[in-house]
Every structure is written in C-alpha cells, then in structure tokens.
Description:
single chain, alpha+beta, Phosphorylase Kinase, domain 1, 6-stranded antiparallel sheet, 6-stranded mixed sheet
Amino acid sequence: MGIRGLVLQLIVFGVVLAAASGEAYPIAKPDCQDKCGDVTLPYPFGTTEECYYDPEFLITCNDTFDPPKAFLTASAINVTSITLGGKLHILQYIARDCYAESGSPIADNKPWLRLSKFVISDTDNKFTAVGCDTEAFVNGSQGEKDFKVGCLSVCDSIDYVSNGSCSGVGCCQTSIPKGLDYVELTVSSYDNHTRVWDFNPCSYAFIVEANQFNFSSTYLQDLRNVNSLPVVLDWAIGNETCEQVKNNMTPYACQGNSTCIDAENGSGYHCKCLEGYEGNPYLPNGCRDIDECQGSSLHDCERSCINIEGYFTCLCPKGHHGDGRKDGEGCIPNRSLVIQVTVGISVGLTGLLMGGTWLYWGFNKWKLIKLKEKFFRQNGGFMLQQQLSGREGSTTETAKIFTAEELEKATDNYDESRIIGRGGYGTVYKGTLSNGKIVAIKKSKLVDQSQIEQFINEVIVLSQINHRNVVKLLGCCLETEVPLLVYEFVNNGTLFEHIHTKSKVSPLPWETRLRIAAETAGVLSYLHSSASIPIIHRDIKSTNILLDDHYTAKVADFGASRLVPLDQEGLSTIVQGTLGYLDPEYLHTSQLTEKSDVYSFGVVLIELLTGKKALSFDRPENERNLAMHFVSALKEERLAEVLDECVLNKANPQQLNEAGSLATRCVRVKGEERPTMKEVAMELEGLRIMVQHPWVNDELNLEETEYLLGESLDAVDYRGSTNMNAGYDSMRNQEIVPVHDGR
C-alpha cells in the first residue's frame, strides 16, 4: 500500500476522531437532570433514584427559588458547585455573639454541621475568628474521636487592625484537621464588647474557603449582615481504597479509560480520566479522547499532526527525520553538512557559555555583596558600629558583629539537624564558631523597620547584662534580611522539659525547684530594678528558663522584651505573650508593666509546686487554667491535693504554705496588689535559708530545737507564726520597703 496510503488512512482516522471528540462529553446519565439553576450536577450526583450512584449523592433541586437552588437531600445543605475532582462547594452559617452599647447581649448562635458521608476539606478551608474582644472555638469529631481548636483576638483600637492580614489582631485563623464529619462553632467575648463597641459590636466565628476570604477591617461591623460563607467539602466513592475494591470484587465506579485514586481526606476513592482523555470517568464512555492537534497543545507538532486514540503523532516532511515535536528533537534534515555546522556551533556556544557563566557568577557575587550591605544598613549596622565604638574604653564586654559567612559555617548552612528550638519569634540553631565555642543562634521571623533604633539599643543593653542566671547575648549578624542573634549555649534543656516532657522528666527535688525559682526571680528583680534601663521580659514561662548541667537557671528569649523609659511606669503595646502565663490585666488594658512579669513568674512558681502545665484542655474545665485552680485550692485548704508528689513528700509543710501564699499573691488579678519582683526574690531567698537550715527538716533535732528556742514546739502552727521563724520574719520585715514598682 505504501507510505502515502498509510498517511492517508491516518489522516482520515484522525478526522473521524476529531469529529467524535468535538462532541461535548456527557455530564449526567442519559435522560437525567444535569443542571439545577447555576449548578452543574455531574454523575455520581443526581436528582432521582436512577440518576445517582447511591443515596448519599442525592441532590434536591428547589425551583421555588429564582434561579433554582441545589441542596444535599440528606442534610439540606445549600450546594453552590460540584467538581469531578472530589470537591463540593456549599454555604455554611456564621457563629456570632452581639451586644448592645450597654454590654447587654442581643444576638448569639452556635451553628453546626453534621455530614453522613462527606468530610470538610482540611486543605481548602480555615477556621476563622473576627473581632477585637473575641474567643472562638470549633468543636469537632473524626468518627469517634473528638477535638477542640481555639482562636483568640484582642485589640482595643481599630488602628491596630490591618486589611488583608488575619494574623491575630482583629482576625485570627487556624487550620482544621483531616476527616471532619461534624463541627460546632462557639464564640464569646471577654468584656461584652463594651471597650470596642463603637467599631466592633460583635464577635464572629466560621469555617470558610481560604481563597474566598480576604479580611478587611470593615468586617468588624459588616459581618452582621452576612448569614453564610463558602465552605468546601471533600467527596469520594464508598469507604474502601482502590486496592480493597479490586481485591474484594466489590462494584467499581471507575469506567473505561479511567484510573482509581485513593481519597486523601476521609475514606473511599476517586476516578480520573487517563492522560489523553477528558470527561466524566464515572459514566460508561464518559472519558473521551482529547484532540491534541487542535488549539495550543503543549505537544504541538513542528509540522503535521495526526491525532490517535489517547495520544497523537507527528509527521516530518520528505528529507527530514525525527519525532517531529516542538518539545522533542523536531524534524532534522538528512545532510552530513549538519554535523559540521553542529560541531562549529557547539564550540562557539561552549565558549559563550563559559564566558557568560563567569560573568553571571561575578554579577551574582556583586549583587550578594550589595544585598548584604543593604541589609546591614537597613538593620541599623552603622548605628550599632557607632554605639560600639563609643564604648571601646569601657571594661564591660559588648556585643560582637558577626558576618553572615561566620554563622552559616557555624550551623552547616542552617541545616535542619542543627535546630534546637522553634518559637513564636523565630528558630534557634546550635552552632560552633571557628574558635570552637558552642553558641545558640536565633533567626527571627520579622523585624519592624520603624523599631530599628530600639532594636540596636536592646542589643547594646542585653549584651551588657552580666548576670549568671541570664543567657548571655554575645552579638548579632545584620547582613541578612532579618537580624540573627548569637547567645551562649545552655545544654540541659528547658525547665518545661524537666517538669512535663515524659521522655525527659527528672524528679527535681524541692530544694532544686526552690533554687531555680529564686534564681529566676533574682534575674527579673535585676532587670526591673538594677539594669541601667529597666527591662520587662514579657514572656516568662517554663520553656524560656534553660538549665545547665548543674540545674542552674538561665533566663532566655528576650524577643518580646521591652525597655521602659525611666520617666514611665508602663507601656501601651499590642498584647503579646503565651496563654496561661499572660497577665489578665495586661490582656484587657494593653498596658504593659513590671507587674506583668510578676504574674507570669507566679505561674512558673505554681508549675514548680504542682508539676502541672499552665494551661491544658485535657483537664476538667475548672482546672484548665492552673493559676486559677491553684488559688482556689489554697483558699479551700486543699493545697496538698494539687502539689507534686515529690514536692509534698520532701518539703516542710510550712515552707510549702509560704511558697503557695507567695505564688497566689503574684497571680492576683490586679497588678497593684501583686508584690514587686524584688520582694518576691527576697522572700524566696528567705525560704531557701529555711530549707538549708539543719533545724527545719531534721525531725531528729526536735528536742534540741525546742530547748534552744526556749518554748514548746507544740506552739508552732501550720503557717509557722512562732519564734522558729523569728529570724526569717525579722529579715523580711526589715527588707521589704517601698521600691516604686521595683525601680
């Protein structure tokens, strides 16, 4: 027949296929409704028994609306779109909590969503809370497993709220887990919106399709007029994987020219047309051949294109060979001269490539140097150099400015294996400097360019803090987009790990716990009262207290710290900190004072006494907040019930009462009623003296103690108000004098 006859047959075959493929592929079963208003209804969904795969896919088309609306019949959920890729777009209600200007509640609801088959998409949706006096939770279940996720948003001025940003100020977002078939939304406020009512009378909570929600400050008012928002569900066929369906010989939904794919969220599987086909893979003959020779295909031929079933082929003209494709070798002339030309061009191109590579490398090197200079200047490098040169005559060790290359080499180019901690303000790496010194290098997430001068001042001040219980700041690197801080390395983990982490829990004796508390209090007293410029740490918690090999406390992470001008007693700031340790007065007023550190330290002291986490949703509701639970137990004389067993068995009851009373005073709601850190440090040192005194814990010396004191020990009550503590009480009374908020 010859090559020309074969080509003619292929061309005729291609024309027939093109005509067939020009027909629109079927959406629904024959004689079944494939549209409801603006919603396309692809099989396996349908409106009658003969038209859907199983009852879970039944759609009710309500034509009383104009245009008609589609609903999932099993749950009366409004459907707005269905895709064959396994996505079901619906509308879901918003939870709201609204108040009158007086603070009286006027409207609230708790919307819920229960699905019998489909699940809420974890990749397409976000749980979102909107408001400036807002606490929101989503309660959900994954089969028999329940969970609870919360979002907190507090602000006292609309000036803090940024459009397009849902990062915690006015708007808070978090991810949801896989496999959710039931959710219930709750939202509440701390102060009935009385402080923010003029611009935000309501709190809102909802699950929303992430790419359909762009936060605006106007939502603080306007969401009152919105009833529902778009949410995406994931749907799949059955409850078995592709392999189980094939092995069990159960009915298989995937039809010809399609393949089976396991569902990524929930159970079941999806069907997808094979490459070279498109259409509905759930219908017989639903996957139709794609004509790659039509339109701007990625596989366009250089010359002639012939479409075949599921693929295509290209033809080269006479005198040429090759695959004929633009993205392949194309059509190559059959001449020996081509080899010579190719060799010549290759040599020339190689020379150009080598020269271009050298120029490109040099240009990139120059750009990198300029970029480092830009970051150094932008991060206040010259300002820091001036500050350091002005201190060259000082005997106090000042901060060193490291180069980016030094720190990259010290951390193996910030290798993942070097990470020793992650927090809200950045990532910490373990590094080894060229002189062999081991350091901790903190790479911050962001730096506020308007606060560069304050940042430089903090580096200077913190580098001069020469306190044995503060992690020493050795220097910084300013050649990167965000500054890097270099600290001394403390190698025995955090206090949190030694108290709470099961794999690292060590039975710290009471004497060691009391010493750690006293050392931490001494640091805060020093920062508040003895530093050249008072410093408020603002994030005291057990994870920010490091321990060395001798269990000596080292206070770390000054990323949230603030310097306090000498003519001020507090600062007005956006609320930052850690839930469970956060001062409630600071949370409601945004006024940061030294008493905020006192509250956080009080929570740490309670952790040391009880061995419990500061905040835990695994405990009963009245015990979730450790500080509140501890204060309640002390008032009801149930202290022994909440104390850590190793503390209760080893410590003197009188000392525990003193320590518990001190912790309770530290966590009082009103800051003015809390002691200063200087007073706290003095009381803890007094308790340490009691612990170390041989008369306090040695029961064998009771008679000797009674003789020396000149009175019966029966007179000693549980709180130690007799002469046994006369020396301690006398010392405390002499030392505690007004210190003007610790300064």
